Amino acid sequence: MQFSNFGNKFTQKSGILQLMDDLGTALNSDRPINMLGGGNPARIPEVNQAYQKTLEQIVANGAGVESVGNYSTPQGDTKFVSALVDFFNREYNWGLTSDNIALTNGSQNAFFYLFNLFGGKFADSDKAILLPLAPEYIGYADVHVEGKHFISVPPKMEDVQHEGQDGFYKYRVDFDALENLPELQNGKIGAICCSRPTNPTGNVLTDDEMARLDALAQKHNIPLIIDNAYGMPFPNIIYSDVTLTWHSNIILCFSLSKIGLPGVRTGIIVAAPEVVQAISSLNAIVNLAPTRFGGAIATPLLQDSSLKNLADNAIQPFYKKQAALAVSLLKQEFKDYSVKIHKPEGAIFLWVWFEGLPITSQELYERLKAKGTLIIPSEHFFVGLDTKNYRHAHECIRMSIAQPDETLQKGIATIGEVVRKVYDAA
Length: 426
Ligand code: PLP
Hints:
The protein is 42% helix and 17% strand. Helix 4 packs antiparallel against helix 11, helix 5 packs parallel to helix 11 and helix 12 packs parallel to helix 14. The longest helix has 28 residues. The protein is globular. The protein is of the alpha/beta class. The site of pyridoxal-5'-phosphate (PLP) has 14 residues, from helix 6. Pyridoxal-5'-phosphate binds next to helix 6.
């Protein structure tokens, strides 16, 4: 069978396909697997109970059947949009109206739209999406309909302490490189995008860094897209003291996935009406209308602020505890080795740097997989950078901390055993 160029591009072996395949296979496997590879959120009992109760309520009051019994408009479920408008205005006083919000089938779907709206072929030239900090979210890498249109610059790295301990580092945006980027000067950038907290590293761009990105985007008359999948106000898996800003040049993307509802595939875009209308038009063609069921669950939880309470009092403390456990286990495994951890500031992963690793992290991934432990190798996350001669891009791994303690213990023990052997053999 012959596929079109579009077909060939979207059926190639992408990083995201490897990740989702591994995840699905591990979950259905008879063999015990230490699943530190995927992006599934944790099952937190308190959070599960809240959803169980809400599900029972929306079945009893008819909102559940209503939400699956009719399409919404292409913009998305009206009641949910209105609950989001009230919630964001209550929390942040942004002065939103329903013209500022569109829903998508998960935020991955939103990025497919946004990157193809602002990156790709334009009437006069090609434009790329600028990712100011690599490593960035693997799921961006392959979404362009034709070609790959991402540009990034290598990060600055700074040794930092974490809770009084050494052995940590933090990526910082290299603003000199960014502000002097020829593509930006020549009008070849269609938008700037960053995830905050960042998947895969757990980095949180500081308020100063965000203000500079915001100014840069405004100067070049392009939007700043902020991927808030792990950010505030929900799921609020963020430990550093930062603020969230929105205005009409910012496109803020939210998701219900990391609050524990990835299966409802609900993404939320807060943006200028022009962008919201564009997303609605895309929704009509690609999906007719976005799914409504996530909104049916989240609407009552937004109205009484219990979603925010769950995020602040159950979700955030859970991941903070898991990050501390994973850090202490890694420190035990690598006492005498040159291993650094990215300062955990949020999200549901730790990013570990095996400095001078004698094999690539892709090879390390294969060896760990053979021993029943799944991680994601770092190569895939340097979207928009040529990593052939960039050794650091081949020396790190991303591991999920969303798993139960026992999985973390076993998985990290295997990582310790395999990596020490690699270093010792060199
Ligand atoms: N953005 C980031 C940073 C993510 O980590 C993910 C999922 O892992 C997504 C977006 C997409 O999430 P979803 O489509 O489930 O909303």
